[in-house]
What we know:
This protein is 33% helix and 15% strand. The protein is α/β, with parallel strands linked by helices. Helix 1 (20-35) crosses helix 8. The radius of gyration is 20 Å and the shape is elongated. The model has no long low-confidence stretch (mean pLDDT 90).
Amino acid sequence: MKEQAYVGRFAPSPTGALHAGSLVAALASWLDARAHGGRWLVRMEDTDAPRCVPGADREILRQLAALGLQADEPPLWQSQREAVYQQALDDLASRNLAYPCACTRRDIEAALAAQGHEHRRHEERVYPGTCRDGLRGKPARAWRLRCGTDAAPVRIAWDDRRLGAQSQDVTHEVGDFVLQRADGIWSYQLAVVVDDALQGVTHVVRGEDLTDNTARQIWLQQQIHAPRPVYLHLPLVLDARGEKLSKQHGAPAVDVADPLAALRAAAQALQLPVEEAGDVDGWLQRAVRAWACRWANGNSRER
């Protein structure tokens, strides 16, 4: 069987300019695509319009261009793909794989408390299945994907190129998850799976904080008959408090006035030794060789 040509992507949310953490993901995904002789795409994940900052998408594209990280196709904006996501949801609903949900966050917490589940900070709220068999006269708010039953739970196993063997019981650790929110916004899970499938993405390189999303995305891929990409989850860039560097915690934008300095810092965060070069193009060529050497055979497990 002919191996599918490599297609990678970088998919930032335009809630602000690129910071050091998002640059690490951009550089790693670009290097992985180039080391495989593949294509690299840029996709703006801007379905959550209230969180997006006007002009941030253009600034991200400007920063990427200044750093020499050129995409092989014009960027894609998820906010322009409402009809595609609606078609995917309609198909899932027609096969009884997705259903409307009337529950508020308070309803879910009350149902879990009644079952004796005490919520802990940063812990996933496992949906108790309240609306699985109907809305009981309540108005629909969101749409959810069915994720197995106690008798036939959804257990997903996959292999991460860095972290190794991974698994999750989606039924009991997540529950039926949201595809479209009560405010009409499409969920990250639905949009990313549909777009990866339609863009032919074969390899996903992203931050380790998204590892927990992988099992539910694989389950959704199976429901829409989409191929499973190969995953690589990167170590996170942390701030002085040991927390993930993020825009919401005030991470400063990457200064691209000195692109080589920005690229060197990202490579250092990736623990990628790159020979010095006098310009961006020369440095990136050396970085591709270093990446290919480290990720020979597609793996570089941490010990």
